[in-house]
Design brief:
about 1000 residues, mainly alpha, globular
Length: about 1000
């Protein structure tokens, strides 16, 4: 009777006591806002639209969506805490299931266990049977990863709860053979798999467990059909996202693409090599011991001697002890734990905010094993060991109490150690993102603004913080990464019709906007709104604006007309920002302590602060406030020791203060200095700006190559401030002014170069470059005569110089003096007859002059030496079309498309050639391909309309001609003809 009461307590009441206690612990340590890993869930619940945005669709988890749907009804300020409390409930229930599962583990795996445990189903019946479930729940529940996710709404606890229920069903079937346990497990497994890709990885183990439990009866058709049906019913949750997009699809994603997105995401995660290797390591302390537990070992292994039996028993005890020690070590986040491996191999190697993969299922399985191993030692070495009929050796009588003492110390010390180690981290982690978001919005003015960002996590944090403030719901938060998509901007206009401009209807929902339009749009918005950027950045949005700092946010201020540099910040603005960072310093120093403890949220927030401090330090350095700049940069390095921009800036700061050697950053390769940063874009986006003359020169060249002329000019100007004798920077600055259509400023720089010749003489190459620069600047001003005079004078002095002849050709082409351009090209070709660039230029000019024989000869010369020259092949096709040799045009265009399948010029010309040759099917294929690549090109609709017209397909012809007139210039002769034809077609169709 006593055993029955104890068994009822361990299997029924103890799990509920553990659940209630865990809920109290998690409620007391609950995250009061959001963590980095809970932010996607909380932001998704707070989202105004029901369907996720396109950038959220890959990670969409339908189970989470459905379960958390009621939380959307809560006030915005209550949603984070309510969601976190739900996670705590799931975590507590998971620990209850863990305790129940440990209590259901059979203790008949070894000969010693079978001798000591005689209860029904071999469930542990010793007086201390309550210890293993409690110990497993304590170790699992107090482990840092589990505790973090049980106190913040990451969704992981809901996934783990379903995983735990599946295991509980499998174990319950062993003692209660009702088939409903297995069908429940199949249904829950299918549901869980739709939101947890780890369930797909565990599916082979699930099948193996079913076969192990059922034996040959597993292969019965009725059983397999029933299990498959319930599992498939659970998997139907995969259809939720496609259905949402079918009901309301602003992005044009569509049902099938929406169905494919999460599947592709899960496949990518499962096949990601680092995750696979980490899972293998995590399995050593969870799956491997679980395999040991699953096998019922024979009494002997062919060895009947007492010595052999003793060795076998000792081996089993040693293996159990080793697995117990390894499992506890893993719970303390040892180097072999999944948390440590994720941190080392993934989180420290990436810069974008990411909470990683948590491997909670492995920690859960490891806890089950820990509970079993503690039960094993309590059974084999406990008081019940003396109650067997076998003789107990004196050694065993001495060893057994020592082992029990060690087990008792372990059972008490492990949970106490976990509380001591993890509780301060859980408490500190609760306020990291709230503090960052509060400091971010602190820089906003009192009225409504537009806040832009290209980093979704910062945008989401800011949005959550604003939604909890009264009257802040009219702040427009826009993701600049999505602003090129028309559907995104249309959504913003629907929400803010008076403040966000309306776009013309796009051809396709996924149509993208040109960056020149986006720059213009940003300028228009800034004239009618205060526009802020949530972090320092660069790119085409910052060509018309400069950043005015207000703590962590930056007011976008438009440049004055034709201005290149921006005005220095006022004394009041400098004081405001210095006070901001001074007041924030104590909190940032506390944050640095958490970063040192490898808390991922702290590390990510530290990178954000570090980037902002680096930007402010550079601004102070440009103002000559070197000591203040050094303080800001040193704090930036403390918050992100891997910030390479800060390292370079601090080094150069010491040089400026006379405390260091000259910076060597410019002499090192990008790979040597910046490690994993393979592009300047990646480096600056993560770390912030760099203030070093060598790096500024290289950055300026990069910006110039991206047509970011003002940002390039700022870099070259800074180089000249630091190194006034840097001739290369002056030439680059002048060329950038030229490319930016500021010829007067280019001439100013050229004048500076000439004025410095007395003290800094130029070599012949520099003199020629200077003449070319001056001539192109005069040409940009419309002074063709002066430009030609300068180039001809230089050509007379350097008749063999090819660069001067190139400039002459360029000048004559722009001035439409084509015969002069041909003469200059002939001179080039005398110097080098196989000059491919000159030959192609000659072909281009001859085509404009309609001397197609000469053009063809030039093209033939190029193709003779380079048969795969794409431009030459395109020109050959164009010559054939101009001479109406349409059949001959197809072959070179086919060759281009073999080399470049989506070359739009080749596709267009081949479509024209086939259309003129009456090959309508081939022409239509090319036009339809072009329509997908370039949906707004009116020539495509002209071609499709012509094809439909020739086929007498009046509705299709009307459709395409309408589209043509919508996109074509209205006053051309061709447009007038098409309008007339369209009216005739519509009139005929009415009859």
């Amino acid at each position: 009777m006593e055993n029955q009461e104890q068994s009822a307590f361990v299997q029924s009441r103890l799990p509920w006591l553990i659940t209630a206690t865990a809920l109290v612990v998690y409620a007391l340590t609950l995250n009061r806002w959001v963590s980095l890993s809970s932010l996607p869930i909380v932001a998704g619940v707070a989202r105004e639209t029901l369907a996720p945005s396109i950038n959220e669709a890959v990670g969409f988890q339908p189970l989470h969506f459905l379960v958390l749907l009621p939380f959307r009804l809560l006030p915005a300020a209550w949603q984070p805490v309510g969601l976190n409390l739900f996670a705590a409930i799931c975590g507590a229930l998971t620990l209850g299931l863990l305790a129940r599962s440990v209590a259901l583990l059979p203790h008949d795996r070894t000969r010693e266990q079978r001798q000591r445990e005689r209860s029904e189903f071999s469930l542990l019946s010793i007086p201390a049977a309550w210890v293993p479930p409690l110990f497993a729940a304590l170790v699992c529940g107090l482990q840092s990863t589990f505790w973090e996710h049980a106190t913040a709404a990451t969704g992981e606890m809901l996934d783990l709860l379903l995983f735990a229920y599946v295991i509980r069903c499998l174990l319950a079937y062993r003692s209660d053979t009702r088939g409903s346990w297995l069908t429940r497990s199949a249904l829950v497994y299918g549901i869980a798999a739709t939101s947890n890709f780890g369930m797909i990885g565990f599916f082979p183990a699930y099948l193996l467990a079913l076969i192990w439990i059922k034996g040959l009866s597993f292969f019965e058709f009725r059983f397999l059909a029933r299990m498959f049906g319930w599992g498939a019913a659970g998997l139907t949750l995969y259809l939720l996202l496609p259905l949402l997009y079918a009901i309301n699809d602003p992005s044009g994603l569509g049902f099938w693409r929406a169905l494919r997105l999460p599947l592709v995401g899960e496949k990518g995660a499962l096949l990601f090599p680092p995750l696979r290797s980490i899972a293998l390591c995590a399995g050593l302390t969870s799956l491997l011991p679980l395999l040991l537990i699953g096998i019922r070992w024979p009494s002997t292994f062919g060895e009947t001697s007492p010595v052999g039996a003793a060795v076998t028993a000792l081996m089993f005890r040693g293996v159990h002890a080793a697995f117990l020690a390894a499992g506890i070590w893993t719970a303390f986040d040892a180097q072999i734990s999944a948390r440590s491996l994720v941190d080392k191999r993934l989180l420290q190697q990436i810069d974008d905010p990411w909470y990683g993969v948590n491997f909670l299922t492995f920690y859960y399985l490891g806890a089950i094993c820990l509970g079993y191993f503690v039960g094993y030692f309590l059974l084999v070495f406990g008081r019940s060991a003396t109650q067997t009929r076998q003789k107990i050796s004196p050694t065993a009588r001495l060893v057994n109490p020592l082992v029990m003492l060690a087990v008792g110390i372990t059972v008490i010390a492990a949970p106490v150690g976990l509380v001591y180690r993890n509780l301060p981290l859980i408490r500190a982690n609760s306020s990291l993102l709230r503090d960052f978001a509060g400091l971010t919005t602190l820089g906003f003015p009192a009225h409504d603004i537009i806040a832009l960002s290209d980093q979704p996590y910062i945008l989401a944090l800011t949005g959550l913080n604003l939604r909890q403030k009264a009257g802040a719901d009219q702040t427009i938060l826009a993701d600049t990464g999505l602003m090129p998509f028309a559907f995104y901007q249309q959504a913003l206009h629907r929400r803010f019709p008076a403040r966000w401009p309306e776009l013309p209807p796009p051809e396709t929902p996924m149509a993208t906007l040109d960056r020149s339009y986006l720059m213009y749009q940003a300028s228009v918005l800034a004239h009618s709104n205060d526009v802020y950027y949530l972090h320092p950045s660069f790119g085409y949005y910052f060509e018309p604006f400069y950043l005015q700092p207000h703590g962590l946010v930056y007011h976008l201020q438009p440049y004055a007309t034709n201005a290149i540099t921006y005005p220095p910040p006022s004394d009041a603005l400098i004081k405001e920002n210095q006070e901001f960072w001074s007041q924030a310093r104590p909190a940032l120093e506390r944050l640095a302590t958490l970063i040192g403890k490898r808390i991922n949220d702290a590390r990510v927030v530290g990178r954000w602060y570090s980037r902002a401090l680096d930007w402010w330090g550079v601004e102070l350095q440009k103002l000559g406030r070197l000591e203040d700049a050094a303080l800001a940069l040193q704090l930036a390095r403390t918050l992100n020791p891997q910030n390479v921009a800060v390292d370079i800036n601090l080094s150069f700061n010491q040089t400026l203060r006379g405390r260091g050697t000259e910076s060597s950053a410019a002499s090192q390769s990008l790979e040597e200095k910046f490690g994993r940063y393979q592009t300047w874009n990646a480096l600056l986006a993560v770390n912030g700006p760099i203030d070093d003359p060598g790096i500024c020169l290289r950055l300026g060249k990069t910006f110039a190559s991206q047509s970011l002329f003002r940002q390039a000019a700022l870099q070259f100007t800074r180089v000249l401030q630091l190194e006034p004798d840097n001739l290369e920077a002056r030439f680059w600055l002048a060329n950038v002014f030229l490319l930016g259509q500021l010829p007067e400023k280019a001439l100013e720089v050229a004048g500076e170069i000439r004025a410095r010749q007395a003290t800094h003489p130029l070599n012949s190459t520099n003199l020629i470059d200077l003449v070319r620069l001056e001539s192109m600047a005069h040409l940009g001003k419309g002074d063709t005569n002066t430009a030609e005079r300068l180039l001809l004078a230089a050509h007379r002095q350097h008749p063999q110089n090819n660069a001067l002849l190139d400039s002459l050709v360029q000048l004559y082409v722009q001035a439409n003096l084509l015969t002069n351009a041909l003469a200059a090209l002939d001179e080039q070709l005398k110097l080098k007859p196989d000059n491919a660039a000159a030959l192609l230029s000659k072909a281009y000019i001859c085509m404009k002059l309609e001397t197609y024989d000469q053009a063809g000869a030039a093209i033939a010369a190029v193709l003779k030496s380079d048969p795969e020259n794409v431009q030459a092949l395109l020109d050959k096709g164009a010559i054939c079309i101009q001479t109406k040799a349409y059949k001959d045009a197809v072959a070179p265009l086919n060759q281009v498309l073999k080399l470049q399948p989506n070359n739009p010029v080749a596709l267009m010309n081949r479509a024209i050639a086939n259309l003129q040759n009456d090959q309508l099917d081939a022409a239509q294929r090319d036009y339809e391909t072009l329509q997908k690549l370039l949906p707004g090109i009116h020539r495509v609709y002209y071609g499709l309309g012509e094809i439909a017209f020739r086929r007498k397909d009046v509705p299709a012809a009307i459709k395409h001609y309408d589209a043509y007139l919508k996109h074509a210039p209205p006053d051309t002769e061709e447009a007038k003809q098409i309008a007339q034809r369209l009216s005739q077609l519509k009139a005929s169709s009415d009859h």
